[in-house]
What we know:
The longest helix is centred in the C-terminal third of the chain and has 15 residues, at 288-302. This protein has nine helices and 15 strands. With 308 residues, it is α+β, with helices and mostly antiparallel strands. Helices cover 27% and strands 27% of the residues. The strands form four sheets. Strands 9, 10, 11, 12, 13, 14 and 15 form a seven-stranded antiparallel sheet that branches. It has a four-stranded mixed sheet with strand order 5-7-8-6. It has a two-stranded parallel sheet with strand order 1-2.
Amino acid sequence: LSIRRQRQMCIRDRAPIVQLDARRYLITDAAFGNARPQWERVLERVQSFGLLEQLQRGAIVVTQGFIGATPDGVTTTLGRGGSDFSAALFAAALGAEELVLWKDIPGVFTADPAVVHEARLVPEISAPEMRELAVAGAKVLHPEAIEPACARGISVVLRGVAGAGAAGTRILPCRNAAATPLALAWRQPCWMYRCNGLYSEGFTTPREALLSVHSRAGAFLVTDTPLEGTPCFEPQKGVYATVTAVGSAPERWTVPMLQELMRQGIPVAGCVVHSPWALRLVIPQEMWREAVFSLHRVVVQYAPEDAH
């Protein structure tokens, strides 16, 4: 027998398996390709249309991710990260204690292990830190995928399908931690624009902006697509990359990060503490790899001795 068949038989020996159509429960608007759930209806359906009852009977319920339906029954899709989003919605509606998401890597790493082979597994990360990492370019999760679960205090665990026994990474609604960087993510190519103080008065940040800083001296922003139709913003020469370090209290470890880049001769075009959990650095695109390896050394220096 195949390994998959053996696992199916093992599951059946433990509990009855019930297959339910996710479209009965995940009620959304009609924006096919990026449908948004109608939470009250989702909650009502999960509580009243047999799913909760089956679980209370001890059954294992199998359903789909990524798809939903309008109140009229028209099939919709949830867009990028939709399968994780579906799981988080079901977990939130059921009042689950824990949500486990199975991935092709065993969790969140200090950097993309395909680029930084010395990257280490991060055992715990908060939901805000995870969101910052995803927005900054990490492909592990879509930024909004786990919000329904985390907003209700449900712990989310990422585990790898190849190492089912490994602990993985636990995503907590919040965490009390020392001021340390946890992980890096990056996006490139990027473009940088500046605007003097005269024209930046009352400006609205374009939707395409990855990073926007506004002060009396003017404004600068970074995008991952060239801007059009914004004459007050002057494009800066060259192409850039954003490298983001995520962790608790970034203002406490910004200086060591900048000192390491300076030692390696890597120029910094922009440096912003973007939130209570993220430091964004703008560097020339051609030096993004050198910057990532340099900053990763700082991340490892802050890691606990027993981290691996």
